[in-house]
Write a structure and sequence with these properties.
0% strand; elongated; mainly alpha
Length: 446
């Protein structure tokens, strides 16, 4: 029996298989060869300041454009482009520093108070619980033996050993951990400072960086291929920029609404909903992750409130559910729109895949990355469908065999046109007669 392969599905499956297989082979290669894994990690560590700088420049670029447009409108031709760019960069970084300073001055004290109150409540809760359990245990066995005396004799006998064990634990475990944390914080702070400097250079010469990349593409590829790649890069920039800026703004608004909502509920309800600032920060940060973010933030927040107010914890769940519905149906679509072009199924798929591979960062960036991959596959599929004369729209493939019937009809039309335009070869007598008639017409024309 001859198998009837459908070329369009074969093309889609082929490109999807290539992308997934390449990613899987690269991950397996790094896992099974520690040398190459260490090499790539070392390269990543060395390039980390430049990665930070690119991220800072990418986030601040829309602000720089806005500030530069205002300067151009008010200054006109009095300030040339280079001084205007320098002034705009200074104002952009001052604005960013001011926003961070306001955040620290307003939110940090309340955040510290919330964390301190949470720790005190947990200590009180644990101490009271442990005390009750210990007292019940001592009372149950107090009639049989003197536990306190036996415990004191044991501690006195092995006091030196306990001290040595504690000292070795501190020197071998705790001190190295503290040293690593201190070193990591210092290294991270240095990378951020270098990243800020790198971002300034990137923003100052962003047009030249873009022109250099274009020149490289046109140097190594044909013009049509280079145009295609640059168009894809522009669309990817649109997807990433729209998603990241929109999601950050959406999460900021949700965090602010959560704070004011919990503050209002604390004043209205007879029971407390503590740690409003801490919970609002948790909800705002986790809301960056599409779909799963509100639920990830609601779980620890629920237990934080549950320690002090069980009723408040369940009211908080209802409040978060209403807030998530508002974000998913009203606020999110207004801000983000259809920036990624993915359906709900592919959004969940990308979050699950990239979150499992790269953690929190993968859950945040997985949606725009997968959107770009999906866009690339869609363009390749459409290009191959155009070559084969197949319909491009997805609705044309809903009915079974509909594209095949259309393709067959197009094939019949092409064959009919070829038959209609096919010229039957002339015999020698007919050719001579036609040539003689042509000569007669020319003589009459003279």
């Amino acid at each position: 029996m001859k198998l009837d392969f459908n070329r369009r599905y074969t093309t889609i499956a082929f490109y999807a298989f290539l992308v997934l297989s390449g990613a899987g082979l690269f991950a397996a290669f790094l896992q099974n060869f520690p040398f190459f894994k260490g090499f790539f990690l070392q390269i990543f560590t060395l390039l980390r300041p430049f990665i930070y700088g690119f991220g800072i420049a990418y986030i601040l670029n829309p602000v720089l454009k806005f500030v530069e447009s205002i300067l151009a409108e008010f200054s006109g031709s009095y300030i040339s482009s280079k001084p205007r760019r320098a002034i705009a960069i200074c104002l952009t970084y001052l604005l960013a520093a001011g926003v961070i300073a306001i955040f620290i001055m307003i939110m940090l004290p309340q955040l510290v108070n919330s964390v301190t109150g949470l720790v005190n409540r947990m200590v009180t809760f644990l101490n009271s619980t442990n005390r009750d359990v210990l007292m019940n245990y001592i009372l149950s066995f107090s009639s049989d033996m003197d536990i306190s005396t036996a415990l004191w004799d044991y501690i006195s006998q092995y006091a030196d050993k306990i001290i040595q064990t504690t000292y070795s634990l501190i020197t071998s475990r705790i001190l190295p951990v503290m040293t690593n944390i201190t070193t990591g914080l210092a290294s991270g702070l240095l990378n951020v400072v270098v990243g800020i400097i790198v971002s300034i250079y990137m923003l100052a010469d962003k047009e030249r960086f873009g022109a250099g990349m274009k020149r490289i593409w046109y140097a190594v590829l044909p013009s049509s291929k280079a145009d295609w790649i640059l168009e894809l890069a522009g669309d990817a920039n649109h997807v990433f920029g729209g998603f990241i800026s929109g999601k950050l703004l959406d999460s900021l608004i949700i965090g602010i609404i959560c704070f004011f909502g919990m503050t209002f509920l604390n004043r209205v309800l007879p029971f407390a909903m503590p740690s409003a600032m801490l919970i609002s920060v948790i909800v705002g940060l986790t809301n960056i992750i599409p779909y799963f973010g509100p639920f990830i933030g609601a779980i620890p927040s629920f237990f934080i409130i549950l320690i002090e107010s069980p009723k408040g914890a369940f009211v908080f769940l209802l409040f978060i559910f209403a807030l998530q519905q508002f974000d998913g149906n009203i606020l999110g679509p207004k801000i983000l729109g259809d920036s990624t072009g993915l359906s709900a199924f592919w959004v969940v798929f990308s979050i699950t895949l990239f979150g499992g591979l790269y953690g929190f960062v993968g859950m945040f960036l997985g949606v725009p990355v997968f959107s770009v991959i999906f866009m690339l596959l869609n363009r390749l599929v459409r290009a191959n469908l155009v070559k084969r004369g197949m319909p491009l729209e997805l609705d044309d493939y809903c009915a079974p065999d509909a594209p095949l019937l259309k393709a067959k009809e197009k094939g019949k039309k092409r064959r009919g046109l070829r038959r209609a335009h096919t010229v039957k070869p002339l015999s020698p007598e007919e050719s001579e007669k036609q040539a003689r008639q042509e000569r007669d017409r020319k003589e009459k024309g003279r």
